[in-house]
Here is the input.
Amino acid sequence: MGTMDPNYMTTMKDEDEEMNMSSSANANHHNNNNNNNKTNTNLDAGALFVLQSKGSWIHCGYHMTTAIVGPALLSLPFAFASLGWAGGVVCLVLGAAVSFYSYNLISHVLEHHAQIGRRQLRFRDMANDILGPGWGRYYVGPIQFVVCFGAVVGTILLAGQSMKAIYLIAKPEGSMELYQFIIIFGVFSLVLAQMPSFHSLRHVNLISLVLCLAYSLCTTAGSIYIGHSDKAPTRDYSILGSSTHRTLGIFNAIAIISTTFGNGIIPEIQATISPPVTGKMFKGLGMCYTVVIVTFFSVSISGYWAFGNQSESSIISNFTADGVNLAPEWLIYLSNIFPLLQFSAVTTVYLQPTNDVLESLSVDATKHQFSVRNVIPRILLRSAAIAMATTIAAMLPFFGDINAILGAFGFMPLDFVLPSIFYNITFKPSQRSLVFWLNTVLIAVFTVLTMLASISAVRQIALDAKNYKLFANV
Here is the structure.
């Protein structure tokens, strides 16, 4: 019996080690796949399909800019009319600072839970984990759903009014009524609503970002042009009305500014970021608030400078007076067309919480997102949601007054009260620390403002009730 070659023995040993390492790697890969499958099966269809975590911080910035920097900013000069120069600028600066701070608080809480293996994808998930199941199911979830769906109705209504304004500029004696324009925009929104996920809106929201910069530039330029023209109205910066009217006007103006900075869907936006999420939301917020500062301050200051206490609820309305154009007609066209185009993106963004709920209830998470089983209920239910929103907008053209109540009850608690509560409960800062007392003050102040703004909104409805008419052509 001969002796084995030592080199042959060494080769055999190396091959055995390689086979063992390969088997171990395959086993680990199999385990990782099982873990991923386990994670996916723990997600409902809404989280799995609508809130897909595939985006970057830049995409997050696009989403936040569309949610915050919308045509509602055109009402800021109107808010200044109730606050004056000093009050208006101070409230605008505080609104920017407090909202940026609050959104960072939410982001830190979300990042903390993601790092400990409990990533939260929705506002109601945060409430369930931090405050208890009842808070998510019976308070935060319903309020967010109503506020966001109310925003969908409101944007469809405003888009219809914007289309009508453009139509009347082109054809002053035109006979088309508001509800017809609302239906036209509703049909377009129905098509855009079929975008499968929040992440799939990233390119739409990039266009939205460009549009908000465009109409802010047009509005600022129009205000400056009118302010220096021979047609400039007499400017008066005094605050009009009785002491009671002025006081309620101040609270109403604060509510307008607060809700303009609000969005109510920060957790859902952060859910679109691919893991790890640490630090990405802050970059997205920085991008968003660069746009916020440029647009909010330019429109509010130039509009109030040009029109003073005569500033309308949409400053573009001041560009015409008694049927006479105070600015070049092409500029008025662009000032109306750019917001109209952005309304489509804003409508679709605020539809996402509704889509999430509908998919959770109707779609099978174990089947492919684009299987026939899932596509049919998705199309039917999203179309039904848009049809309902369009009907409400056409039937209640005074929905803006109702939306003021929804904003007071919804945006303020979601964006300015709950973030501080979530942070204090999650991180338990020392009661001697600055952050604890700052958060406590914000909770107290915005709770009071929520009640006062709600009273002011109810009062406005009472004042306007005599003018309410179903399907009114306003």
Observations:
- The first helix runs from residue 6 to 42.
